[in-house]
Amino acid sequence: MVDEASASAGSDILVSFQGACAAANISGLRYQRSSDQMDLSVCIACLEIAISLYQPLHTTPLLIVILDYLASALLKRYQHTRNRRDLDDCIRRQREALSLHTLTQPPGPNPLNIIGTALMFRVRESGEVVDLEECIARNRECLLVCPPGHPLRPSTLANLGAATYRRFQNVKNMSDLDDCIAYHRETLLSHGIGQDRSETLTNLAIALKSRSLENDDMSDLDECIQYLREALQLRPLGHTTRPTTLQHFISALRVRLQNRKQLVDMDEWIGLCREALVLHPMGHTDHAAALTDLANALITHFQHSRRIEVLSECISHYRTALQLCPFGDPNRATTLTNLATALTTRFEYNGGTIDLEEGISHYDEALLLRPLGHPDRLETLTSLGIALGLLSEQRTSMEYPNRSVQLLRECLLLCPAGHPRHAPTLANLGNALRIRFWRRGEMADLRECIELLRDALLPSSNYHNRSVALTGLGAALQRRFRLLGQMSDLEESINVCQEALLLLSTRHQGRPSTLNNLGTGLLQRFRKKGGMTDIEQAVELHREAILLCTTGHPQRSPSLNNLGNVLRTRFEQTAQNSDLDECIELHRDALNFCAAAHPRRPEILNCLGSALQRRFEHRGRAFDLDDAIEQHRESLSICPVGHHERLSTLSSLGVALNKRFVQKGEIGDLYESIDLLREALALSPLDDQNRPLSLDNLASALRARGKELGDLADLRESTTLDEECLLLRPVGHHARSSTLNSLGLAWKFRFDQTEAMPDLLECIKYHREALMICQTGSGSHASNLHNLANALEALHWKGGDIRDLNESIELLRDTLLVHPVGHTARSGSLYSLALALNRRFQITGNQTDIDECVQHYEAAVRYDFSPLHHRLLASNSWISTARQNGLESLEAAYTASLDLLERSIIVAASRIPDVHARMTHAGFNPNGRNVSLDAASYAIEKHDIKTAVALMERGRALLFTQLGNYRTPLDDLEAADQELADRFRKLSTAVADATLSSDRVEEPKATSDDVVARRQRQAADWNRTLEEIRQLDGFDTFLRAMPFEKLQTAASGGPIILINISQYGSSAIIVRAAGDPLPIPLPEATPSAVIALANTLLRTTTIRPEEYESNRILQDMLREIWKKIVEPVVFELETTLKLPRGSRIWWIPTSFSWLLPLHASGPYQPGMRNLPDFYVSSYAPTLSALVRARAGYRPMKKASGPRMVVVAQAGAEGEAELPSVHDEVALIRQTVPQTTVIEGDECKREIVLTRMKDATWAHFSCHGNQHRTEPFKSHFSLRTRATSLTLLDIVKIGLSDAEIAVLSACHSAAGDVSTPDEAIHLTSGMMLAGFRGVVGTMWAMADMDGPVIAEEFYKYMLRNGPEAVDCRGAAKALDKGVRRLRKANVPFERWINFVHYGI
Asked: How many other CB atoms sit within 10 Å of the CB of residue 1102?
């Protein structure tokens, strides 16, 4: 066509015009073949020249053709260069061409398609609405002239699809979107597989996704994903447009996953995101976007899977994305928010405030980037406010809850009523105020919180996430109920929590909190109304909450603590000890998740302390009460003045200290208790529903101090407080009876001080009223009966009216009705009634009374369901009554008491590690009285000496063979019959749980028929199992006294002297290998005389006076010991037994005679012999210990000799240097061939124990330390305190080949003043570990004596060579060393210090 136009020209201009047209043609054709942009540019330049040379004489059609050609070329060049000028020129030239068309010559498809396409490009660049409208119009015009099958129809349809989609995005007219989809569908049908198809598939998918979002039509979204999947297949790896399709595919899958939560989509989504990240590596402009997409997918995956490693990867990608968004980057605020949200989420699932604090810092920065007016400011304010609320529950600073409330108030200003975010913001602010109330305690916060949450839940609010507001409202109403006590609040709380729970799936992150709130509400309702259904349901709810909260989850600690509280309450109803034990473990676990600064720590500490205190009250374990006090102390240390938990902590600690005073008698505890309870009362407002409890607690402590010190001021104040408490508990109040009872006690204590009859009458008045209104059969009923009975008995003593005593006895008879068979307190009631009958017998001499009295004593002693402590008290009273009145039942009383002592230790061995507490529990009297010694004295009176020996063995050193629960009578049984041993141990534990309770509080409410039946079954099973054990070969004496014939074998190596110190007459008994034991009266060895000697020794060896004075005191003491105890024994040994001098003898002292150096006693007069000049003395804890030490021993006959281990520690941490240790070790090396020395840095517990297992001899040259209250914690000081070797460590290992141990250490054989009969110290402990003979010291030894003793000892032991060693020579070997010291004239305290134990 251009050629024809050129041919019509005739002038020079025409020639130039033709030339330009020809050149344009040639360049255009060449471009089509080569795609060289230079050719295209030449073509465009030639066409521009041709147009400039155009003359009017040329026809219009020719100009139209040239303009069309130029527009087409410009469009092509624009597509290469994206030069906007080309695009604008294209549109201008095409418009110019189109303007030349007439009605008779309409434009064809090509020019319309070109301008439509060009306009679409410019719309995409500039977004001009005018261009967009023209684009749509031109493409529709083109479509009219492009029938189906026309080659330009697909591109026109594609242009129309793109343009109508753009207009939909602008004006949201759904008809545009529908047209767009229709255009793309037709386009898709018009071409086959290829680039055009993949692009059309992508565009159609984008439009379908938009329509799906607008219409909530998931079928459109499914079709969208189908098309994107196909498009992606058409754009394989390496395809330039694959990343674009990937992004759309990722977006579509995310939307479908959010709606349908199909995990198949999740995996595909994450896989596509990972591919997108590979396609956009570091340095790519879209790398940050790809990281964000993958992180978004991962956080969604985490919400479904709860796999923390997924969330951690998500956070890592967000962090990298943030690094790629420097300050000033428009995406920085969004990336900061994304990272903060992920960190906060990880905190919510995994704990760790570091994440939460970092998240808050990112939210803070994002908020700075979103100032007032920013569309996303509300979102950031909300997220930051909620995060600060979460931190408020982890940190004690009030800055966090205050700022949380402040930010959420700003949110409320940004979304007033009618705003779609109004209801959620109300809920968020309400919850923030609830948290601040919990921290600050201001009722205004709680009131506003409840109002806001209720407003958020109004039907008109259209709040979709109702569970947040419901859960918060439930928690707030519970808080108000605890303060005001209105049941309507509690019932509403339970209802809203139940509604919230129905809305939450099992995997919803808010479910644990709702479960906890509902469980706590049900617990509160139970405490008000009763009903075990609430308790059981609460247990299930809290257990589910724990299962949902993995380790580190912020709700795990509250969940554990709440379950503990519920189980403790259930224990009060069912008396199942497993509930109380689990409760304590749960509280401990909860505490492990609360750091020192955690706001919940005081509450959990108090819960743990209260549970431990309750277990002490139920089982009588002193260490539980000590532990409880420690927990309350820690709580108080982190509850400063003004802290919301301070009142509760003060009360709990004060009550616990009061209880410990009652148990241990430490007056300092009572003073501290009163100070704490005064402060607690000062913090209790007059209208506080808990004020009566504060009054009651302080009154109780003041009563105790007034009674203890005889202080009338305390008793008067106690009475005043109780009277105020009574005013707050009017007639009809459930606790009025308790307050009346307390008032009665206060008046009784006042009477005890004043002996004023009006005080006693007031006491009786209050107790009678209390008895009238208390519930029959309740625990308080029994207490009221007992207290009134005591008051009436006092009235009898004051007024002499026997009727008062008679009424007292009848009231005590009534307590037996309240405590029927099966009730743990029945033994105590029997005991009290027996005491009263004994008193009446003393007045009237009525034999019926004393007979009934003894009957009740015996019933109390043999009652299997009561605490052993009660039964032991009853047995002691039975013994005293039978002694005083010469009753025949005395022998039965002694036997029953000793049975209880042994059973007490067996049953309680694993439960009371403190020896003093265990012996107190078992009935040991710290003033020196011991039931077994009194029983032995009685047997001696009856001339039954064999029985006396057996009795002395039974009731003494009860813990020696069960030290630390590693050497018990069960050990042999386990070897013989494991199943029977396990059954017996389990039953013993069950019996212990039922009987080891304290007598200071009423037992759990569940003394019902089923509990009674269970206790009866347990006791019967225990007795049957015991009999079954005794049927086994060799177990006929299991938990029975060892018969005399077996005990007598201990004397095979020489006579054994038992020293019995008793208030009814002291004696020595000589046990010999054959023949009857020989009794020797010791009339001067009274308990008081022996205690005086022991005190003298303790003072002298502790205070260390000047040497001359020390020698004088000790010499006088040794003379007294000789005179009162030893001389009569030596006389019998010489005259009756004809025992040669130099023979060996063994001493088994009792009571405080354990502390005396019997082996060194003598007249110490010129020309007179002392005991060391007569015989070589050894000691033994018990006869049975010697029997075991002798069993199976054969002297060593090995050429290699003994295997020796030496533990040498000259300088232990915190101890004085021992310079002679090195000399001592050197002497041992020279004397004993096979010697392994552990010294210096090697002196560690594990190394020493390992070497001891292979050794036959052991020598300790180091500091020794005796633990007075817990002897099994006595230890040898090694390199550091942390590595010290305790007696328990040694006992646990059990040494089969051990023979001799030499303890060249201080205090290794020092007894315990509080429990002297137990004789547990390092020396006796070494025997228990397996050594047959042990050398030890009674007090601190002189460092320079160690080498002397060691040299003489080992020389003697190896005198016949290492192959002929006999460990039975150890006592004489020690005697050699001591004699060398004596010859050197060392002070008495240095040589009498050394003792030998064993064979």
From this structure: 9
